[in-house]
């Protein structure tokens, strides 16, 4: 039974050396417990924050203890009358091939209703994040321009499509020409900007958004956020969802830079963590499922095979190796 521990707290960019594989005994479920076999593991940018020893909205990982993330697992033994062998559950679980659990905090998921992986992405935290960010903060209106960074990723690709459903002009920012093609062809974005081949993001956004930016869904922070602020319209809304461009920095760089834009243009910039809304997850999940059924929403997944590849899949997020939700199939 392989387990992955956090071995070091990385300085800057994490590496494989920060993780350690340990062989543990096969656990046995106690009274009221279930034995779970890991099937699909979600790797996410926010796990980088949990590798630091700092206070946040979620506890940091402890050194020399298993890493955890969103996992879909199968019940293979059950001493708990609420769970039957063969059922699948979704929840925050440890990076172990097999583990026991009480069932608290786990949600059953049904493979006949949606592919199991969808519960880690479009019907899970990242899809709900996209919808909640737009509903609670961005409030995009028909005819407005929505700009999305990290546009080909799990959150960004869903946010852009919701913008289209709401009748916006949607422009995406991503890190390769292939990703720009994907967001336009598959996800219906109107325009795309490859930030890696663009030397002036302020001008590139101005060109792609001729009527300015009404709502900016920010997944990356840093210089791209600055460039979006420079193009924001009167009464614009900026959703601070993530800042992946800064997660591996050892010191937080200065920013955002603007010349009184927020005041002159009455701009709102608000952060959020989707975990604040856990009690409100059911309606957005239902809405996302409905849009998929109606053919209005689609999704991509990058599925890496093998338990041993979980750390590398996590590291690859910072090199943009994924399109859509990054998931490891065990
Ligand atoms: P993604 O699927 O978007 O994967 C990460 C992507 O980020 C990569 O594919 C890469 O794409 C891009 N990226 C990596 N490094 C940089 C960089 N230096 N500058 C710009 N882009 C970069 O991940 P998620 O959809 O899971 O998460 C997206 C963001 O949303 C993250 O910042 C995450 O922390 C945040 N988030 C926030 C939540 C909340 O509750 N507030 C909940 C879930 C996620 P590319 O090739 O385009 O560079």
TrEMBL record:
Oxidoreductase in keyword set: yes
GO MF: oxidoreductase activity, acting on the CH-CH group of donors, NAD or NADP as acceptor
CDD domains: PGDH
Pfam family, one: ADH_N_2
Domain Enoyl reductase (ER): 14-328
InterPro entries named in the record: ADH-like_C, ADH_N_2, ER, GroES-like_sf, MDR_fam, NAD(P)-bd_dom_sf
Entry protein name: Enoyl reductase (ER) domain-containing protein
Source species: Kriegella aquimaris
């Amino acid at each position: 039974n392989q387990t992955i521990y956090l071995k070091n707290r990385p300085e800057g960019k994490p590496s494989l050396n920060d993780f350690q594989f340990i062989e543990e005994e096969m656990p046995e479920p106690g009274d009221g417990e279930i034995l779970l076999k890991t099937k699909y593991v979600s790797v996410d940018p926010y796990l980088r924050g949990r590798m630091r020893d700092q206070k946040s909205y979620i506890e940091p990982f402890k050194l020399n203890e298993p890493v955890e993330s969103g996992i879909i697992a199968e019940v293979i033994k059950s001493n708990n009358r609420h769970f039957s062998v063969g059922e699948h559950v979704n929840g925050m679980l440890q990076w172990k091939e097999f583990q026991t659990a009480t069932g608290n905090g786990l949600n059953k998921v049904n493979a006949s209703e949606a592919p199991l992986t969808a519960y880690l992405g479009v019907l899970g935290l990242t899809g709900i994040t996209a919808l909640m960010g737009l509903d609670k903060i961005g409030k995009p209106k028909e005819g407005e321009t929505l700009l999305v960074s990290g546009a080909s990723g799990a959150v960004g690709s869903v946010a852009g499509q919701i913008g289209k459903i709401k009748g916006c002009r949607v422009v995406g920012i991503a890190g390769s020409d292939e990703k720009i093609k994907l967001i336009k062809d598959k996800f219906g974005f109107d325009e795309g900007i490859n930030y890696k081949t663009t030397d002036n993001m302020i001008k590139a956004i101005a060109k792609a958004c001729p009527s300015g930016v009404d709502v900016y869904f920010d997944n990356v922070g840093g210089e791209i956020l600055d460039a979006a602020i420079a193009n924001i319209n009167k009464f614009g809304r900026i959703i601070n969802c993530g800042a992946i461009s800064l997660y591996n920095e050892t010191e937080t760089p200065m920013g955002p830079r603007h010349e009184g834009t927020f005041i002159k243009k009455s701009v709102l910039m608000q952060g959020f963590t989707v975990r604040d809304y856990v009690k409100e997850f059911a309606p957005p999940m239902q809405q996302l499922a409905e849009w998929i059924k109606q053919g209005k929403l689609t999704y991509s997944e990058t599925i890496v095979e093998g338990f041993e590849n979980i750390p590398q899949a996590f590291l690859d997020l910072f090199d943009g190796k994924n399109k859509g939700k990054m998931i490891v199939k065990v």
